[in-house]
Structures are given as structure tokens and as C-alpha cells.
Design goal:
The complex is a heterodimer of chains A (about 550) and B (about 290). Chain A has about 550 residues and is of the alpha+beta class. In chain A, the strands form five sheets. Chain A has a four-stranded antiparallel β-sheet. Chain A has helices spanning about 5-30, 55, 90-100, 130-140, 160-175, 205-210, 265-275, 320-330, 345-360, 375-405, 410-430, 440-465, 470-500, 510-540; strands at about 50, 60-65, 70-75, 110-115, 120-125, 150-155, 180-185, 190-200, 215-225, 230-235, 240-245, 245-250, 255-260, 305-310, 315-320, 340-345, 370-375, 435. Residues about 35-45 of chain A have low confidence and may be disordered. Chain B is of the alpha+beta class and about 290 residues long. A four-stranded antiparallel β-sheet of chain B has the order 2-3-1-4. In chain B, strand 2 (about 80) and strand 3 (about 90-95) form a beta hairpin. In chain B, helix 6 (about 160-185) packs antiparallel against helix 7. The chains are: A alpha+beta (about 550), B alpha+beta (about 290). At the A-B interface, helix 6, strand 17, helix 10, helix 12 and helix 13 of A face helix 4, strand 4, helix 5, helix 7 and helix 8 of B. Strand 17 (about 370-375) of chain A pairs antiparallel with strand 4 of chain B, so a sheet runs across the interface.
């Protein structure tokens, strides 16, 4: 027999062998098919290339929606229709009107007017204490007419969500933890949840990290015109270009975070410091002291303090040092605009550094509506073992029933082997695309063995119908008949599972995806091969 | 052939009405149970944490079950000891409260530590609003899956009676396990929803097989039936045994998701055996011998 006719005759079997081999390589060869060993090194106690999700690896996951409402596509008159240029000043003006509104008192960072890539203007406020009607009225004050019912919706814009995801990702990774991820997940009804997964943090820690907005401001606290002290925000987190880790302060107690101010903001900052007297009479004039957390504002003398404010809380107060003051006074500081931001403790310093690096969370998360799952690595290991045990027991059961039913090893053995091959191919696929496996996937694998064997039973019964299979022709026609039923059954299973694969029903997506893939692999690869094996065994060729 | 053979049933002894009466009666009882439960509790089936909101802790502690029950300000909904190899002193506790940090704190304060293992091994919370949204999504999913399956059934057979027979028995395959859940006190979770969807796909297989043998093959009605039954019953029994083993072991191990999928599929497939070979069969026989052909 020539090689071509050999392939022609056994292509189904060869296809199965090829897929199983590919799956084995993807599963066991370090680095897998992609030959990318960067990842494998990090988990050396894992003999396969499989990746595990939270449910089998431990960690914490918190999903929560974003607080806020959005007036989408408002007619702000800020975008020039012809050349698409944007009037930034007009946007800031609207934003300021929202902040100035008397009916609701918005904190810094809780209003935003922005333009998306298509030139549509959106106004958002990030609080749940304002009604739609109030929001609409506030916008009307700024000259923007919106219908409170039609144009305003709950939730925030895609842009804001993307920024939240980005900020959280850098926050969890800046906190010295690797392998944390954040992503957004659409819920039925158009709502979005922000999902954060971290391998080693308990829920309280993660919740604390997520509930902190991280809005950093430098506020100048100085004597105003009529003798009372004034607060003025002189720098915001966005004005800081680079940040170094915190270190113990060189002058006196506490910690400091070395920062470099953005070159665009540096000159203004320098001018303002000179104008309000920080570089003159105010040098070294700050006697406010803290208790390790907040700052006490009991004082008699006039104060020139630079306050570090995080989320509206004053965490530290510092005076302007003489060296810094003189370089500002002669205007050279703006050429190399670096200084230190103060913090009272190492912890505060670290938090400040992370907040500056990651940036502020554009909108708060509604942790009242959260969904949390947290699993210790020890329990996750147990689950891994259990999954293996449950899977093995199910396979043994299925094999037992099949052997009892057919008593012919020639029929039953290939049946079990083929069903197992299906699982191996799927596992290989999961390793290849690095799908993180969870308990729901395990359920999917077991379901795949179940449906797989069902279909093989249909093939076996059909082919062995009415005595021996005498010729190739008889075999082929019977096999084709069996395949109609299998195809129909596969189609219904896929239809039934597809809503789960599309809708975001938490853990169940994995189950649905594995089941659907399993059915496809079965119909296209393993079941035809089983027919081939059975034919060889039964027709004595 | 084999150590167990599918028994051949002499269908000629029973009339169509007799055959259909049993599954229809069971379906009626199941619907009655669900209606009753709906009238009493407001939902046909008790809603689990995934849908109603609540918290779950898995704790590792040397405290006894009674001590665990008293350790929390709020009385736990349920406490289940995990019975797995190599695992002792592990309990799964469910609460209706969603304040999981308070629960965690109470557990860490009031329960005795077992060696150096963390007391709280798993913490899971679903807020009420998240749950009710999930509920809507799940309902939509089941409806879409059922509708899709029905459309496919009609496409496959293109005649009314055999197609509707599949749809009716699939409906009954869903309702009977739901009623079982209401009676056995199993609450609806994401796992059981997955099982119900899987049932829509799984249970239709044997119906398609039966319809196919009877309508699309030559040969005597009873001969075709017996042949379809031999294959179909083997299939269903194999799946049932796999699901039973998975359900029971997963339940012992405290792996809830796998346990509920296994148990519900087992019950649903058992219902499917009855529905396929009594309800569907009687409709097909009526169609074959008395029905109007188009």
C-alpha cells in the first residue's frame, strides 16, 4: 500500500493521532507549542502547562459596579463640527458648573466632562446622592439641555471604565504583588462590573485598596489677606510626572516620597509659591504636627504649610525648606522640578507612592453591590485533587457501564480510549490558549466524557446492527446513518449551551465553552476516528 | 450480549393513553409542587446564594458544629461538614447576610484554629442586587436555550407531532428536576442552572434517536422502537451513572458546583427515560398509526 492510499484510508485515525500528539506537546513540553518558557519558570511545581483560575489556585476576586451616572452625547457646543477641534475651555467650564452646584456638593474628582474618539461629549458624575433631575438641572445651568429620563443613564462611559481597569491593574501590581488582573465584565441589562483578581490578598485588604480613590493633592495652607488661614490646591496627582519609592526623611521625622513635577505644571507651581509667600516669609514656618494618621490644626502663629492630601484627608504637613525656597525664588527650580512629598509613616508613604504612580481611580466602585470570592491556596489545592478524583471516578464508572453492556473488549476499549482522547485534546487546547481552568471547566470535562461516550454508543450500536459488518460499503452506510443522529444531538447541545457561553453568568462560562468545544472536537475528530477503529476491528481487514 | 441488556418492553399491551398517562401525571404533580412552592414562598424553587445574595465561608477549625453555629451573630443558614480523604475539621457554612468581613472576623475570633491552617479557607459573597440580576440572566439563558432547541427539533423532523413530542418531553425533563429540587430542598444555584441547560441538550439526544429510528428507517414500528431503546437506554444509563458518581463524590467533598450539576442531571436523565419511552413513544405511535400525514 502506497503512502497516499494509506493516508486516504486512515485519515480519520491519523487526524486523531495528530491532534492527541499536538495536545500532549502543548500539555507537557515545557513552554508548550509556543516555546515561550517565560511563564513556565514561574510555576515549576506544576508538571503540566495548564493554567489554573482562582477556583483552583487560590486568591481573591471582587466584582463591583462603578458608582455614577452619565449624560451621553450632550450638545455642549464644544466640538467644532467642521474640523473636529475641541474647545477644552468649554468642557472645563461645564465641569466647574457641576462642582459649583449648590444642590449637591461634589468632591474633587467626582465630575467629568470628556470627549470620546468620535467627537461626542459626555458628562459624568460619580456619586449616588444626586438624582437624574438634579443632574439635568445642573447641566442646564451650564447651558446644556438634557432630558433626565432619556439622556441620562446609570453607569459611566467606556473611557472611564477602561481607565479604572488600568488604574486598578497598576495599583495591585504596584503594591508589590504580581499576577493581579482587572477587567470589565458586561452584565445582562447593560451594566458593567469591574472585576479584580489578586492571587495573594485577603478580601479585606483588596476591598480597602479598591475603596480608596487615591486622589492626591498638594494643598498650600497659608495666611490669607484678612489674617485667617487659607487652603489652596497647588498641585494635583496628574501634575506629578515621576515618583520614587518612599524613604525615611533626611530632615527630622517621617518619610518622604521623591517626585518630579510635570514640566508644564512646574512653572505655574513655582510662580504661585513665590506669589503667596512660601519662598519668602513662609520658609520653615510650619509647626503643624500629626499623630501618625491625621494632622492637628491647633496653632496660634501664622502657618505656611504644604499639606499632602489623599482623598480629602490631610496625611502630612511640611514647611518649605530653605534650599528649595531659594531655587524657586530665583526661578531655577522649574528647570529641574523635583521635590519631596511628606508622609508620616512608611505605610502612608508607600500608599502615597502607589497612588501617585497608578493615578487616581476616576470613579469609585460601589462595593455595596459587590460579589466576592476568596479562596486559600490550601483549599484550592484540595479542589485540584478532588477534581482529579471526581473526574477519574466518573471515567471509571462510564467504563464499567460500557464494559458491562458490550462485554466485547474490541468495542468497549476503543470507546473509552477515544473518549479520553477527547479530554486530552481539550486539555491541550486549554494549555495552548492558556485558558485558566476552574471548577466549572472540570464539570465541562466530565460532561464531555458523558456526551462523548453517548455518541460512541450510537455509532457502535448502529454499525453492529444486524450481525457482522461484511463489507466496507455496508459499514460506510451505517456509519453515515449514525452520524446524522450524532450531528443532530451535537447541534442541540451546542444551541443549549451557547446562551451560557455568551451571557456573563459568572463561573458558568467555562463550563459552556468546554462543553461546546468538546462537542465540536468529538463530532469533527474523535468520533469519525472511532468509526475507523471499529471498522478495522470488525471487518477483519 | 453484555452483562446487562436493555429489556424489551411489549408495548402492544398498553394503549397510547395508558402510556402517556404516567408521565403526564408526574408532570402534573411536578407543576403542582412548583405552583404550591410559588404560592407559599414566592418562588417556585428556593433561590440559592448566587441568586438571592448571601455569603458562604469554608472554615478549617477544631470547633464542633454546635460551636460553629454559635460563633456568629447571625444564625447560619446551613453548616455542612466536608467529608473528603485527607480532610478533617472542614465545614462549609452559608449565611443570608452579605457582610462578609464581619463574618470573617467573627469566624477568626470565635473558632479554634486547626494547626497552622487559616481558619477561613474560602469566603464568597453575592450582594442581593447582583443576585437578582444573575437571576434574570439565568432565566433568559434557559428560555433562549429551550427556544433554540425547539426550533432545531422542528427543523430536523419538519412534521408537527414528532417535533412537538420532543419539545414536550424536554419541557417535562426540566420541570421534574425543578420539582425534585423544591421537595428535596436543593436551592437554585449557578450549578443547577448549568445542569438544567445541559439537560436541554442531553435529554433531547434520546428523543432524536427514537424519532429517527421510527420515522426515517424502514421496518416494523416495534422493531425500530426496540432498537432505538437498546441504544438510547444504554446512553442514558451511562450518563446517569457518571453523573451520580460525580454528584455524590462532589457532595461529600464539599465541591458544590459539581455536586449540584451531577445530582440534577441524574434526576433529569431519569425523568428523560420515562418521558422518552412513554410520552414521546405514545405520541409517535399515535402519529404513525392514526395521525394525519401531510
Amino acid at each position: 500500500m502506497g503512502p497516499i492510499s494509506f493516508i486516504k484510508e486512515h485519515w480519520r485515525l491519523l487526524l486523531l493521532v495528530a491532534f492527541v500528539t499536538g495536545a500532549m506537546v502543548a500539555l507537557f513540553v515545557p513552554g508548550g507549542i509556543m516555546a515561550d518558557d517565560s511563564y513556565v519558570e514561574s510555576q515549576d511545581d506544576n508538571p503540566t502547562n495548564l493554567e489554573y483560575g482562582l477556583g483552583l489556585d487560590g486568591g481573591t476576586r471582587i466584582s463591583a459596579p462603578v458608582v455614577g451616572m452619565t449624560a451621553e452625547n450632550i450638545d455642549a457646543g464644544a466640538v467644532n463640527e467642521e474640523d473636529g477641534s475641541v474647545d477644552r475651555q468649554r468642557l472645563t467650564e461645564i465641569e466647574q458648573t457641576l462642582y459649583d452646584n449648590d444642590e449637591f456638593d461634589l468632591e474633587t474628582g467626582n465630575a467629568r466632562v470628556s470627549v470620546d474618539d468620535d467627537g461626542n461629549v459626555h458628562a459624568e458624575i460619580f456619586t449616588d446622592e444626586v438624582t437624574r433631575a438634579q443632574f439635568a438641572a445642573a447641566l442646564a445651568e451650564a447651558g446644556v439641555e438634557v432630558d433626565p429620563e432619556e439622556d441620562i443613564r446609570d453607569g459611566v462611559t467606556a473611557q472611564t471604565r477602561a481607565q479604572i481597569v488600568e488604574t486598578i491593574t497598576s495599583k495591585i501590581n504596584a503594591a508589590g504583588l504580581s499576577g493581579g488582573t482587572a477587567y470589565e465584565s458586561a452584565r445582562f441589562g447593560g451594566e458593567y462590573y469591574i472585576v479584580t483578581e489578586v492571587p495573594d490578598m485577603d478580601p479585606d485588604e483588596l476591598r480597602a485598596l479598591l475603596s480608596e480613590r487615591g486622589i492626591v493633592e498638594v494643598v498650600a495652607y497659608y495666611p490669607g489677606e484678612n489674617g485667617t488661614q487659607t487652603n489652596e490646591t497647588v498641585l494635583t496627582g496628574a501634575d506629578i510626572a515621576t515618583v520614587d519609592p518612599p524613604r525615611p526623611s533626611e530632615r527630622g521625622s517621617g518619610y518622604e516620597v521623591p517626585v518630579q513635577v510635570d514640566s508644564n505644571a512646574a512653572a505655574d507651581y513655582q510662580d504661585r509659591m513665590n506669589d503667596i509667600g512660601f519662598t519668602g516669609e513662609g520658609v520653615g514656618q510650619c509647626s503643624l504636627r500629626g499623630d501618625g494618621e491625621t494632622i492637628s490644626f491647633d496653632h496660634a502663629d501664622e502657618q505656611y504649610c504644604l499639606l499632602t492630601v489623599v482623598d480629602g484627608e490631610v496625611v502630612d504637613a511640611h514647611s518649605m525648606g530653605p534650599t528649595l525656597a531659594s531655587s524657586m525664588a530665583d526661578g531655577t527650580w522649574a528647570n529641574d522640578p523635583s521635590f519631596f512629598m511628606g508622609a508620616q509613616t512608611q505605610q502612608q508613604g508607600a500608599a502615597l507612592s502607589v497612588n501617585l504612580q497608578a493615578g487616581a481611580l476616576p470613579a469609585p466602585l460601589d462595593l455595596e453591590q459587590e460579589q466576592t470570592l476568596s479562596l486559600s491556596p490550601a483549599l484550592a489545592d484540595q479542589f485540584k485533587l478532588y477534581s482529579l478524583l471526581i473526574g477519574a471516578l466518573s471515567v471509571v464508572t462510564v467504563s464499567g457501564v460500557v464494559f458491562l453492556r458490550y462485554s466485547d473488549v474490541r468495542v468497549a476499549t476503543p470507546m473509552i480510549v477515544t473518549a479520553m482522547a477527547e479530554v486530552v485534546i481539550l486539555l491541550g487546547f486549554a494549555a495552548l490558549i492558556r485558558m485558566p481552568l476552574d471548577l466549572s471547566h472540570v464539570a465541562g470535562f466530565i460532561a464531555v466524557v458523558g456526551t462523548g461516550v453517548d455518541d460512541l454508543i450510537i455509532i457502535a450500536d448502529e454499525v453492529m446492527d444486524d450481525g457482522d459488518v461484511s463489507s466496507q460499503r455496508v459499514f460506510e452506510s451505517r456509519f453515515r446513518k449514525a452520524f446524522w443522529v450524532i450531528g443532530a444531538a451535537a447541534a442541540t447541545t451546542i444551541i443549549a449551551m451557547s446562551p451560557l457561553a455568551v451571557l456573563s453568568l459568572g463561573d458558568l462560562r467555562g463550563f459552556a465553552i468546554i462543553t461546546i468545544l468538546g462537542v465540536l472536537v468529538g463530532v469533527l475528530i474523535t468520533r469519525p476516528a472511532y468509526g475507523d477503529i471499529l471498522q478495522r476491528l470488525l471487518t477483519d481487514k | 450480549m453484555g452483562y446487562f441488556d436493555v429489556p424489551e418492553i411489549n408495548y402492544t399491551r398498553y394503549s397510547n393513553r395508558q402510556l402517556a398517562a404516567v408521565p403526564l401525571a408526574v408532570l402534573a404533580v411536578a407543576l403542582l409542587v412548583l405552583t404550591g412552592s410559588f404560592l407559599v414562598t414566592g418562588t417556585p424553587v428556593q433561590l440559592g446564594m448566587d441568586f438571592a445574595g448571601g455569603s458562604e465561608l469554608t472554615v478549617q477549625t477544631t470547633s464542633s458544629e454546635a460551636e460553629i453555629a454559635n460563633a456568629f451573630d447571625e444564625e447560619p443558614e446551613s453548616i455542612q461538614a466536608v467529608a473528603a480523604p485527607d480532610t478533617q475539621n472542614q465545614y462549609v457554612i452559608q449565611f443570608t447576610s452579605t457582610d462578609s468581613s464581619a463574618l470573617r472576623e467573627q469566624a477568626e475570633q470565635n473558632l479554634a484554629q486547626d494547626g497552622d491552617a487559616d481558619i477561613v479557607q474560602l469566603e464568597s459573597t453575592v450582594s442581593e442586587s447582583f443576585g437578582s440580576e444573575t437571576q434574570q440572566t439565568a432565566l433568559l439563558g434557559i428560555a433562549a436555550a429551550f427556544l433554540g432547541m425547539s426550533v432545531l427539533a422542528f427543523l430536523f423532523f419538519r412534521t408537527f407531532v414528532p417535533s412537538i413530542a420532543i419539545v414536550i418531553s424536554a419541557f417535562s425533563d426540566l420541570v421534574i428536576p425543578l420539582a425534585f429540587m423544591a421537595i428535596a430542598g436543593i436551592s437554585l444555584s449557578l450549578g443547577t442552572v448549568a445542569a438544567l441547560l445541559m439537560l436541554i441538550g442531553y435529554s433531547v439526544d434520546s428523543d432524536i434517536l427514537l424519532n429517527n429510528h421510527i420515522l426515517r428507517r424502514s421496518g416494523d414500528f416495534y422493531e425500530s422502537t426496540n432498537r432505538a431503546m437498546e441504544t438510547g437506554v444504554t446512553m442514558t444509563v451511562t450518563s446517569m451513572s457518571a453523573m451520580l458518581v460525580m454528584g455524590v463524590t462532589a457532595w461529600l467533598f464539599g465541591v458544590e458546583l459539581l455536586a449540584s450539576i451531577g445530582i440534577i442531571l441524574f434526576v433529569g436523565l431519569a425523568a428523560d427515560l420515562m418521558n422518552t419511552y412513554m410520552l414521546n413513544l405514545s405520541l409517535l405511535r399515535w402519529y404513525k398509526f392514526h395521525g394525519v400525514r401531510s
